[in-house]
Amino acid sequence: IVSTEADWLPGAVVVGIGATLFMDVWALLLQRAFGVAPANYCLVGRWLCHMPEGTFAHASIAAAPQKRYECAVGWIAHYVTGTVYALVLVSLVSGSWLARPTLLPALLFGIGSVLVPYLIMQPSFGLGIAASKAPQPAQARLRSLMAHTAFGIGLYACAVGVSYVLQVRA
To answer: Within 10 A of 29 (CB to CB), how many other CB atoms are there?
Structure first.
């Protein structure tokens, strides 16, 4: 059983990175199979890079001035966010979940995490709440929901891998 913070912290970090990678592989498959454009994490970086200047919301993040290193910042933020989400999940369900993961908490947490882009990022990017001002709001919402559902599945799949390693190591 994973009982102390020192035991579950590294496992949760691995789960977060792995689940984020799972989400990105899902997006890549959608792009290759159906021509669905993946999320542009460079725009996340642009948004973050404008914050030190006091700009937190944009009429259009795509029209905002580009920032140096915005793509690197965006991709790093994407993986840090996925890792933080995994840490929050494991802290909510308990470290012992890593030893015996179940799908439901991971899936529900992944789906619930879509509230962050719906309520914070999309409005800050000039797209309105839940992409209400996007050219195709329903499609934008569905894409976000699918990505976060894939993240939830990735949380579970990676936790299964971590639990296997923990059992082999024990």
So the answer is: 12
Residue type, 92: L
Of 117, 116, 106, 120, nearest in space to 149 by CA: 106
Structural contact between residues 124 and 56, judged by C-beta atoms closer than 8 angstroms: yes
Mean per-residue pLDDT of the chain: 94
Distances (CA, A) of 47 to 43, 65, 106: 6, 10, 28
pLDDT of residue 1: 45
Instruction: Using the predicted structure, report yes or no on whether residue 170 has a pLDDT greater than 70.
Output: no
* One-letter amino acid of 23: M
Please count the other Cβ atoms lying within 10 Å of the Cβ belonging to residue 84. Answer: 13
Alpha-carbon distance of 117 to 111, in angstroms, equals: 11
pLDDT of residue 163: 92
* Residue 156 CB neighbours (<10 A): 22
Whole-model pTM above 0.90? yes
Long-range interactions of 1-5: CB distance < 8 A, separation 24+: 1/96, 1/99, 2/95, 2/96, 2/98, 2/99, 2/166, 3/95, 3/96, 4/95, 5/95
